[in-house]
Write a structure and sequence with these properties.
By secondary structure, the chain is mainly beta. Helix content is 9%, strand content 39%. The protein contains 5 helices and 25 strands. A 5-stranded mixed beta sheet has the order 14-13-12-11-20, with no helix packed on it. It has a 5-stranded mixed beta sheet with strand order 21-19-22-23-24, with no helix packed on it. A hairpin with a 7-residue loop joins strand 22 (312-316) and strand 23 (324-330). The longest helix is centred in the N-terminal third of the chain and has 9 residues, at 11-19. The two termini are 41 Å apart. The relative contact order is 0.14.
Length: 371
């Protein structure tokens, strides 16, 4: 009997194999093998990651509220997928492929985590007031995940709360509070977040039987960053973010375009006096790129996500002038690629801003939400 070549594999088998692939790149590669494989498989309905847009009148001190998910490219196509849980029209978080949804954007009484692909829902106690929810890991794959909530403290401050699966209620993480939290990342049981005054707060949850994390405040990180500028005049910063990338913690420093290097990445060195130094600059992230903005930051590999470019910093910016809403900083060339503000959103009666990045846990397949 003649051997059967790869190009003659049954279509049903190819569909079964394709359905088990977990990266956008793998789906692209299997689709490109030959005409028969191309006819038997399908590309993702939309490449990841996406941007969650919210109303411009909002800030990090109140929930996102009304929201839409959009592709981070010219035109910013709106993504429609599945139906969120009934009675939860407002968003307050976009971590790990999950949406944190509430029943009211000002005085919420119910809070649910929703994973769109599996339609999984996890109900959490609802702290009120509530501004944002962040997840340390994916609840479907991790047994040690936890959630952090932020609450308004005073007029311009925030405090953080902790909830672990099985807890009856939220517990205080850092009652002293900070200014408005700008961005957050998780690495090896620690949460690192930066407020709008560029203070870094490190919360260590590796405390054994003690449920309270150990929190360290590093004041005025801005002065440390300003020392990096060797120009004749000081260039104002556009933003500072911490990002976990390939098992390491990185600091992203963004400058306005007048600076010769609009984006710089450093490896922080933690000192014994609770300070941090930035000496080693990272010029090449390999296949990775960093995604920063409001909310949770993360890194993705261009090998697994073919819609992104390697060695870049993707920045979801607040479009004060409504000209650009996404900036892509190419670290190798110091070139800044700007993505225009979507015309569709310009025509809305109230402007939208890109609040945070979002990527589904798995590729979005065309038939995933079919009945």
């Amino acid at each position: 009997m003649a051997a059967v070549g790869w190009s003659s594999l049954p279509a049903d088998l190819l569909k079964e194999i394709s359905g088990r692939l977990s990266s956008d790149a793998d789906l692209l590669h299997i689709h490109q093998v030959c005409p028969h494989w191309r006819a038997s498989t399908s590309l993702p309905s939309a490449w990841r990651p996406w941007v969650l847009a919210g109303r411009a009148r909002r800030s990090g001190l109140v929930p996102i509220g009304d929201y839409s998910l959009r592709l981070p490219r010219r035109g910013a196509q709106r993504m429609e997928f599945g139906a969120p849980p009934a009675g939860f029209p407002y968003c307050c978080g976009t971590s790990r492929g999950w949406l944190a949804l509430v029943d009211d954007d000002r005085s919420p009484t119910r809070l649910v985590l929703w994973e769109p692909l599996s339609n999984t829902e996890i109900s959490l106690p609802c702290p009120s007031p509530l501004t944002r929810i962040f997840l340390s890991d994916d609840p479907l794959t991790s047994s040690s995940w936890f959630a952090i909530a932020t609450q308004l403290k005073g007029r311009i401050g925030q405090r953080t709360l902790l909830w672990r699966p099985g807890d009856a209620d939220w517990s205080m993480t850092y009652e002293r509070g900070t200014y408005e939290i700008d961005s957050i990342t998780f690495l090896e049981g620690k949460a690192y977040y930066i407020d709008v005054e560029n203070n870094i707060i490190v919360c260590d949850f590796n405390t054994g039987t003690d449920p309270s994390p150990k929190c360290t405040w590093i004041y005025d990180f801005c002065s440390i960053v300003n020392k990096l500028c060797k120009c004749d005049r000081l260039h104002p910063m556009r933003g500072v973010h911490v990002v976990a990338c390939n098992g390491e913690l990185l600091v992203v420093v963004l400058h306005w375009e007048s600076h010769p290097s609009p984006a710089e990445v450093y490896k922080p060195e933690w000192m014994l006096d609770l300070q941090v130094e930035l000496h080693e600059r990272v010029m090449d992230l390999g296949d990775y790129s960093l995604f920063v903005g409001l909310g949770e930051t993360f890194s993705l590999s261009a090998k697994e996500f073919p819609s992104i470019k390697r060695n870049c910093v993707y920045y979801a910016d607040k479009p004060y002038n409504q000209e650009y809403w996404i900036s892509v900083f190419h670290l190798g060339s110091d070139v800044v690629e700007e993505i225009p503000y979507p015309e569709e959103l310009k025509q809305d009666t109230t402007d939208w801003i890109p609040y945070s990045w979002f990527y589904l846990r798995e590729p979005l397949r065309s038939n995933v939400f079919e009945a």
